[in-house]
Amino acid sequence: MTQLTVVFRQVPHGNASGREALDLVLLSASYEVDTAVCFIDEGVYQLVKGQSPKIIASKDHIATFGALPLYEVDKVFICEESLQERGLSPDDLVIKAKTLPRVQIHRQIQQSKQVLTF
Amino acid sequence: MTTTLTTLTAACATPAQLAHHLRHLPPGAPLLLLQDAVVMATQPRFETILARFDAYLLLPDVEARGLVSRIQKGLKTVDYYGFVELTLQTQNQIAW
Amino acid sequence: MGLFDPDMSTFVLFVNGPPYGREDAYTALRFAEAALAAGHEVRQIFFYQEGVLNASRLLSPAADEFDIAAAWQRLHHQGVPLVSCVSASLRRGVIDAEAAEDAEHDSTNLAACFTLGGLGEFVTAAAEVDRVVQFG
């Protein structure tokens, strides 16, 4: 059973939720906590390629999503419908990860011992 | 089979928006409305969607907003002790 | 302490809302008080995102308004550790003596009943408790 699932639900840079969620994910994984990550609804925008956060003085945490495999975070799930609704495809994203139907994303969330949403 | 307590703190403008917001939630899922979200439980137009779930309201938030007499029939209210209990009756909580 | 109580549960609260302007921190406070009164243990309250502002020593509400700082202090005196994420705090201007020295600031503003801690403190505590509850 996954110990902690962190859910990214918001667009990046308008607030720091994505940056601070990612800090938590990596820290959690480095403490060898079984950590999963889900991107759903507006959260899929966290992963869009070609971002330039510096233009608006935002930290580029987007590049750090690439570190998830290095931290052995391999449960990374992207919501299929969330991509489709927004005209995005897996090719538009900075990481290669499993896309799942919304219902399965929520099943993953439900089965996690703890859940934090950002 | 684990149950998740879904907590809502914001009011949706329409029942359609609430239905959209909760479209993943299975029938009968435990749902706690608190803070501003409680206003939804005082409007007849939200009754149908809320009836799909095992919905609770945090009573102090309804009292604070002067809406106790408008709580729709069949909705359960809890205080903060009840909130604590709900988190223990379910396996995890998601702030949605 | 030491006696196993099957009805006692342990909690970590994760608070993202500020001390004033949003209700999340107040809800967390009331939840913590209720949990303690019901005989449960609140192992830690961890403050993240805008929640770190709760750790400021300088909160100054009007005399006839709710003093959340005093309420957090009461929880602290009941044995609940209040930990504000150090990096999130520094970015938002809540600093302790060590951080002030590093950043060459001439003052500090961390409330006495809070400590600045890394995310590791949250992760460690969360791994040990029955429930983590998020506010905001």
UniProtKB/TrEMBL annotation, chain A:
Domain of life: Bacteria
InterPro entries from the UniProt entry: DsrEFH-like, Sulphur_relay_DsrE/F-like, Sulphur_relay_TusC/DsrF
Homology family: Belongs to the DsrF/TusC family.
Protein name: Sulfurtransferase complex subunit TusC
Organism name: Ferrimonas gelatinilytica
Lineage: Bacteria, Pseudomonadati, Pseudomonadota, Gammaproteobacteria, Alteromonadales
Automatic annotation (TrEMBL), chain B:
InterPro entries hit by this protein: DsrEFH-like, Sulphur_relay_TusB/DsrH
Pfam families, A to Z: DsrH
SUPFAM superfamilies: DsrEFH-like
UniProt-recorded name of the protein: Sulfurtransferase complex subunit TusB
